[in-house]
């Protein structure tokens, strides 16, 4: 696997390959939250905690070692080959690259609760139509503003949502 030579972005096949393994998805989440380079030991401990759904302090030596070995021998070299990370195996340092943003964008399309942006957009559109209709027919409290003003407010909210969704603005992590 190699990054696309025509651009700095990863190919869709590389992104899907990285995301195909749950452990690599945990690596992406940890690196995204870390915001910079991380040691292999720290990464292994955090991934083990996520995989076992336990606190960081509760990770046993065996849990960490099992993850450490798998990351060092398989997952991190694969992610390095794709251009998602830079893995310095001699020093045990993992540094995110620009390719991580491509992978994270795919990963964030579906949140942990299973809602996708498609579902969010459908719900938001339904609420918008109901709000504008209620304002247009004069239903209280929507009658406090003209239906045109509600339309402008909702349009601004849709533009802000689209801007966040496309990555033009940083996403706010509420976890």
TrEMBL record:
InterPro entries: DUF7344, WH-like_DNA-bd_sf. Signal peptide: none annotated. The chain crosses the membrane at residues 120-141, 147-169. Residues 16-95 form the DUF7344 domain. Keywords: Membrane, Transmembrane, Transmembrane helix. It comes from the Archaea. This is DUF7344 domain-containing protein. It comes from Halopiger xanaduensis (strain DSM 18323 / JCM 14033 / SH-6).
């Amino acid at each position: 696997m190699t990054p696309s030579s025509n651009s700095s972005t990863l190919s869709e096949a590389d992104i899907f390959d990285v995301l195909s393994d749950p452990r690599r998805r945990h690596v992406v989440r940890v690196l995204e939250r870390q915001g910079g380079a991380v040691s292999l030991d720290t990464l292994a401990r955090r991934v083990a905690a996520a995989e076992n759904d336990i606190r960081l302090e509760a990770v046993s030596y065996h849990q960490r070692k099992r993850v450490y070995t798998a990351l060092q021998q398989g997952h991190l070299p694969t992610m390095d080959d794709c251009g998602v990370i830079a893995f310095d195996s001699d020093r045990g340092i993992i540094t995110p690259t620009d390719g991580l943003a491509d992978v994270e964008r795919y990963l964030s399309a579906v949140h942990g609760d299973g809602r996708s942006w498609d579902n969010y957009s459908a719900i938001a559109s339904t609420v918008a139509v109901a709000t504008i209709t209620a304002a247009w027919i004069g239903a209280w409290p929507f009658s406090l503003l003209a239906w045109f003003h509600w339309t402008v407010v909702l349009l601004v909210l849709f533009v802000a949502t689209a801007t966040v969704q496309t990555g033009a603005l940083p996403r706010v992590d509420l976890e």
